[in-house]
Amino acid sequence: MAMPELAGCWFILTGSGKFFRNVQLDPADTLVLLQVDDDGKGYRIFWGLTGGGLPTSELAAHFQSHIVRMAASQGRDRIIMHCHATNLIALSYVLDLNSAAFTRELWEGSTECLVVFPDGVGIVPWMVPGTDAIGTATAEQMQSHSLVLWPFHGIFGTGPTLDEAFGLIDTAEKAAEVMVKVRSMGGKKQTITTEELIALGKRFGVTPMEAALKV
Length: 215
Known about the structure:
Blueprint: E1 10-14, H1 22-25, H2 27-30, E2 31-36, E3 43-48, H3 59-72, E4 79-83, H4 86-94, H5 99-109, H6 112-116, E5 121-123, H7 132-142, E6 147-150, E7 154-159, H8 162-184, H9 194-204, H10 210-213
Parallel strand pairs: 5-6
Antiparallel strand pairs: 1-2, 2-3, 4-7, 6-7
Helix pairs in contact: 3-7, 4-8, 5-8
């Protein structure tokens, strides 16, 4: 798939089948530095993967999401991060796979969540990973969400820096862990109300996802 919007852009990525914990131990084997060709139809590797291999199998999803987030954030969002967040995956088995309902559950999991991701969590249906199709579906959700859930698989997050993208995912994952524990203890007896969520948004100057407020 040609991506002229990324022509000439540089990216640093993990390699397919590499373990993130090894980035610190052996970055030259775990990472790859590449540049997209001038016509956006291919790329050239300049460094990394010293032990062989290819860039991440989710390259299509990353590239398509980069294109969308570059436009949506006026160029601020430079990071697309994908990981297999345990508790978010667990919730995808027990919650309705509905963006508004899933978002509301996480907002109620921790007070900071609405402030950190007021645009909510986008959700794609289960799809075979590593394909252009799942990349397209993810990018469509990235137009309006900085977090996108792949049910039974993992999460995509975006931000201007590695710290901000990681912090976004970490905030959602911690809220998911809280809700996993709450469900294991018999469910909620009280929670953050709609009125309180609205007040939270006003206090921190963010506009909450309307559909999640109405759940």
